[in-house]
Every structure is written in structure tokens, then in C-alpha cells.
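Take a specimen:
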Amino acid sequence: MSVDKTIEARTAGTAAMGRRSRPRVPLLPAPLRRWLLPAPAAAVFVGLFVAPQAFFFAMSFWRKKGLRLTPDFTFENYVEAWEKYAGVIAITLGIALATALLTTTIAFAFAYLIRFKAGRLGPPLLFITLLTLFGGYLVKIYAWKSILGKDGILNSALLWLGIIREPLTIFIYNPGAVVVTLTYFLLPLAILPIYGSLRTIDDETIEAARDVGARPRQAFRDIVFPLARAGTLAAFTLSFLVAAGDYVTPRFVGGPYTAMIGDFIEQQFSLRFDWPMGSAMSFSVLGACVPVVALAAALLSWSSRR
């Protein structure tokens, strides 16, 4: 009996091992699984970004008759947008370009400091940068309005130091105030992509460059800046596009003589109910921004190859 039981146990163990060694057949083929993994994110992207953009792009060719929107295919909205608002678009691009250049420059310097110079203070400084993202947009605008205003902190400090005798009004309600306020708002958003690019640079690479006689300026020009090009371009593009589409900041700190195109687009949608015209103005600004971003990408690519 013991021999028979031993044979049965071995047979059962062999059968179990055979069952375990069989490869599992996947329920779905590999190509289909590769497509299904990003499907939820792609659906959200298409539903929340691509579909609304396509809808408003198609609406930009419609007409407004009274209070009714009539589907059509006409370029009259684009012609009117460029005829009436070409100067405003130019001012908007100028302010956005100044904001993007200032923001990207300061962000690169700060990210470089965190990555290579701050040492143990780098993570706390990065944490402080992230904390500023939790502040409300309007709160930041009102903060700068209280700093730059006639009775603000800056004028009060200058009066207390005896530098001026009466409050100055040149600090606010001008393009400079808009650039400063937008730079403060966009700075944390620009620091993060640049810092992410700088994190990919190994310290050993820079050390090797210095060992072969490269000066710090040469190491920065030939190693650091080319490898951080993607993050720098992302920071510039984000800052430029957000500044070009903003209308709240110029309304609060820009005054009546610093109107940007976003303010006029907002009026088309909210007050005049002319959605086709507002859509045409929006895509006109977007079309004007594309060459600026392309030129910035070309300049960064050229400078990194020098």
C-alpha cells in the first residue's frame, strides 16, 4: 500500500508541475494591450482639449445674425479680427514676449542655483517654489496691486527713505506692471521644467569637462545649456502662451491703456454673444504665437550647437 501511495503522490505532483509550467494565454493580444493602456488618458485629452478646440475652430467660420449663430463657412471674422485688432495683437505679443523672456531667464538662474549651487538648501528652495503654486491667482494680482499702487508698499518705502516727496504713479497701470505681475505668477511654472532638465545632467559629466580643462563658462555653454534646452523651451512656451491669453492681469494692473487681446475676446463671448468672432480672434492670436515659439525653438537649437 505504501508503494502505491508513493507512486500516486509522485504522479499527482508531476501533473501539478505540468499544469504550473503551462504558459498563460493572455486574454488580449499584445498590440491591443499597448493601445488600451493609454486609452483613458487619450480619451480625456480628446474630450477636454481636442474636441472643444475643433468645435470653436469650426465656429470661427460661422456668422452671427442678431442673437442667433448661423453655421457657415466664411473668412469674414478673421478679416475683421485682423483689421480691427492687429495693433492690440501686436501689443499683446510684445508684452507676452517680454514676460516670457524675463520669466525664463529668472527661472533658469533659480533652477541652476537649486541644482548645482545650493547643496542641501536645494530641496527646501524647491519646496518653497512649489508652495507658491497654492496661492490664488487673484490674490497674487491684488498683492502686486498693493505693492505697486500709489499708496502701496513701494511708494511708502520710498517716502520713508526720503527718496521721493510724494507718491509716484509710474509703478502701476502700465505694461511694466503687467509684465512684473505675470512674471511672478508664471515663475514657479517655469522653474519646474527647467529644473527637471537640469536633474538629468550628471555631476560626473561636468567634472569630466573640468578635468580636461574646460572653464565653468565653457562647461555651461557646451554641456549644461544644450542638455537643458527642452526644459528651457517648455518654460518659454508656457510663459509666452499663458501671458498672450491673459486678460485678468492687464485689467487690474494694466489700466485702460494696456488692453490686451484677451480682454476683447472675453467681451465677445460674455457681453456681445459673438462667439464666431471671439473664436476667430482666439485662433488669430494662436496663429500669431506659433511663429514666435518656432523662432525661439530655432534660436535655442542654434545656440546649443555653437
